[in-house]
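In the present case, backbone shapes were mapped to integers, as reproduced here:
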Amino acid sequence: MAEGKYKKLLSNTAIYGVGTFASKILVFLLTRLYTECLTTEQFGTADLITNTANLLIPFAAAGVCEAIFRFALDSKEDKRSVLSTGFFLICITSAVFAAVAAVCGALGVFVEYLWLVALYVLMSNFHSMLALYIRALDRTKLYALQGIMNTVLTISFNLLFLVILPEGNFFDGVNGYVLSVVVADAVMGLFLLLYAHLYRDIKPRAFDGALAKRMLKYSIPLVPTTVFWWVTNVSDRFMVTYFCSEAANGIYTAAYKIPTLLILITGVFSEAWQFSAVKESESDDRAEFYTNVFGGFRAVIFISGAFIIALSRIIAGILYAADFYTAWNYIPVLVGSSIFSSFVTFLSSIYMVKKKSVKSFITAMVGALVNITLNFALIPEGLELFGHTVPCAGWGAQGAAVATMISYATVFVIRAVDTKRLMSFKLGVFNLALNSAVIAAQIVMMLFVDNLPVLIAGQALCVLAVIAVNARTLIFALRSILNALRGRKKVTEKNNIAT
């Protein structure tokens, strides 16, 4: 039945949402513990270790974890063969990574904490491989539950290593911070292996050489793709620090916290959508399904973004200390970045469905290059090149925010054009343009209008305009949800929601 696919998507989104928000809240509560138990130097070192490890994770597995998820979703693929092939591929790539780490250790590179980085990477891939396989098998509740359990275990080991055990022990400080995550990943990997009986699906004779080649062809381009997105998301902070100051970067980093609310919404939805996108990719009404889902997603993102921009000063006043209040200046532009980032994430599902990971790689590379180029052009007042000073915009941290927004918008436009060749569905170009224009007006008003009554009236009008533009889409989405929840057969809409 037609309403079944909407009900499935809604159900999965709700389950992933509960798991994700529960984990995020628990992690947020750990902030005080870390600042009490770690010195600023230890906290900085631990952050460096985890960021380094997160960058190396896809390299150590050659992106095979994501390939396991994608290929296990295919109804024509043998699930045991996918897991077995992926498992042995990861064993090989992990052995290569461990060997490289050993050589680096022998050469004295990052030697003090190299073993922590290696353990973090290996256990993360072990856990991720099995968790993504569970997700591909549509064991949604178990996937969400194990995510919460993983967070609870991390907290428990943090309390054990950093609080309960006496100071000066092996697990004190940086070791305890990092090993809490490592041990939790190892325990949850073993839990899934045993509780979900996944060990039964891993057999040497199930290894398929031809499948391994297809999986690697899909997964290897995902590795540099991850690096390019890391560049787009993180390089601006390094450049703000270099061209401005550490204090300016601290305020800019604080500004990032509020727009990530949109990224959180997108992340929860994306986990559920990827499953539905693959499962419905061969259905007769897939174009209508994709169009309707994107329409609802588009409406939620634009309306949420409009509210966050309008309330950015108020939110900053509540969440930030006085020294960080000026971070509100960067929030509107960064919200614009998050809006386009959300749409880029949606379109990446098309590449995933069609297994066009090379296209993900190319578009991510374009985004990274645009971001870095604009950072140089917009952040400093000038650049010294070949003995000459080249004038630049001199916008400081605001230039970094604008560069990020333009880079995501560029990638979105490229992907919007390119994915039309892969999947026939309507993005609603007029709706996108109209919403974007209103959001742009909001951003300009927030940054340049000082008269408070005028600003409040202008923001209120913009929020109402965004709601009005998306009202029809939102009503249709809510009606589809209600019909799905009631188990009724959805009446086919004559007029498409993408206007």
The chain has two domains: 1-220, 224-494. The beta strands are 382-385, 388-391. Residues 1-220 form one domain. The longest helix spans residues 2-37.
